[in-house]
Design brief:
Elements lengths: L2 H5 L8 E9 L2 E4 L4 E17 L8 E19 L2 E20 L10 E22 L4 E18 L4 E3 L2 E3 L3 E16 L5 E12 L3 H5 L13 E13 L3 E18 L5 E19 L4 E14 L24 E12 L2 E10 L2 E2 L7 E2 L2 E11 L4 E8 L7 E7 L2 E6 L4 E8 L2
Antiparallel strand pairs: 1-3, 2-3, 3-4, 4-5, 5-6, 6-7, 7-10, 8-9, 10-11, 11-12, 12-13, 13-14, 14-15, 15-16, 16-17, 17-20, 18-19, 20-21, 21-24, 22-23
Length: 421
């Protein structure tokens, strides 16, 4: 809330310098017997220099990758069935180095920390189908199998240097399987019930596998999974609509770095809550809406560390995860060419440390938007964000024994013109 402090740069040496490029080509055509096909070859590349200012010695990280791949799919609709069969193939060359120019402090040694390259190959195959089982009931199912291979090349001496562990050259393979099943039941002309169970899964990232510290091992690092179930109701009310969805999720093999600086490979979290989306026409020119969620995100394992405020206990709230999030909207259309809207965004309170000993009270922001269509091709628009000039944090946490805030933007005004066609 100190305006001068909020606008100050406490670490002027910090920077992130990145460049990225992407290119793709979409091809579509008609195959035999009712099948259509799509093929999308692509290429992408990026590079980044990053001053790691959160370490006492400010090392420099340089990283990047080049990738080429192709996504292909076959589509068919016949009677009450819709089928999609597809595959994704990708080849990647990535690299990462970390170098410290400043003198050694504690275990942060001067010189090269890491320098490695990884060749990655990913092949995935998937299938999805939708079956109109009856006039009111639709069933949806799908599955995706993915194989990932990493060939890691260490370009420095193997072994430990200070707090850094460089693995010898190696190859690692992972395979994942992600099924899902859902349904949509139209209870009446204006109401429907829907549900879904699914598994989300990803292979470990290269930094999780090869950017280790002494005493840590690559053994036991498994793909991260998220199993979820949801059930919802959608109702058309004539002058408005409402949709409510309840969900529950379990995440396993969560990878993160704890407060002692060690990698955790077997973390687990639970998530459950309710999402809602409500819209209502108040008059011929005035509409209101409310979209949001209440959810509880909790740790499902224990992890003691040296700092009491960062010790993880089963049942604790995940830090920086608010239970309440919502956006309310009031839209006014005085004439056909113009509309004005007022948005109220609420971020609820949340704990700022894993031990749930410190908290941020949350915040509320107002945004005013307006738009005027001058012609069919030209539109004038404007917005005032943070209308009341609220002092708030985009993110708050607790670090090095003190609360820490990442200040949000003050009141800001945007005006513009958009020409299309």
């Amino acid at each position: 809330r100190d305006r001068a402090l909020a606008r100050a740069n406490g670490d002027p040496e910090a920077f992130r310098d990145a460049i990225a490029g992407r290119m793709s080509l979409a091809l579509r055509g008609q195959a035999s017997e009712g099948w259509t096909w799509s093929l999308t070859p692509y290429w992408r590349a990026n590079a980044m220099d990053f001053r790691m200012h959160f370490f006492p010695t400010d090392p420099l990280e340089e990283s990047g990758h080049r990738s080429a791949g192709v996504q292909g799919a076959l589509h068919r609709e016949r009677g009450t069935w819709r089928i999609i069969l597809g595959s994704d193939l990708e080849w990647t060359r990535g690299w990462l180095s970390e170098t410290q120019e400043n003198p050694t402090q504690f275990s942060f040694v001067q010189g090269d920390h890491y320098d490695y390259a990884v060749n990655a190959r990913v092949a995935a195959f998937y299938a999805r189908t939708r079956w109109q089982a009856s006039e009111r009931l639709s069933l949806i199912a799908g599955a995706r199998w993915e194989a990932t291979r990493f060939d890691y090349d260490n370009r420095l001496a193997d072994g430990s240097v200070g707090r850094y562990l460089r693995l010898p050259d190696r190859s690692d393979d992972f395979s994942t399987f992600a099924p899902d099943f859902g349904f949509l039941f139209e209870a009446s002309e204006n109401a429907s019930l829907f549900g879904r169970v699914a598994r989300g899964v990803r292979a470990p990232q290269t930094a999780e596998l090869y950017r280790l510290q002494p005493g840590q091992t690559i053994t036991g690092i498994e793909p991260e999974t998220l199993d979820s179930a949801e059930l919802g109701w959608r109702q058309d009310l004539g002058a408005g609509r409402i949709e409510i969805t309840a969900f529950a999720m379990e995440k396993s093999n969560v990878f993160f770095r704890d407060a002692d600086g060690f990698n955790v490979t077997d973390g687990a979290t639970d998530h459950h809550g309710v999402e809602f989306d409500i819209a209502w026409t108040l008059t011929g020119t005035l509409e209101a809406g409310l979209t949001g969620t209440w959810a509880r995100h909790t740790y499902a394992f224990d992890r003691p560390v040296s700092a009491a405020s960062e010790g993880i206990a089963k049942g604790n709230d995940v830090d920086t995860a608010p239970r309440w999030l919502w956006t309310g909207r009031l839209a006014w259309t005085p004439v056909a060419r113009a509309d004005v809207s007022l948005e109220w965004t609420h971020v609820g309170a949340y704990f700022t440390d894993a031990g749930n000993l410190n908290a941020y009270e949350g915040h509320d922001l107002l945004t005013l938007r307006a738009r005027y269509r001058v012609t069919g091709r030209t539109t004038l628009y404007g917005a005032i964000r943070n209308l009341t000039g609220e002092a708030y944090a985009n993110r708050a946490d607790y670090a090095f024994g003190n609360p820490r805030y990442f200040p949000g933007e003050p009141r800001g005004v945007t005006v513009g013109i958009r020409v299309t066609g």
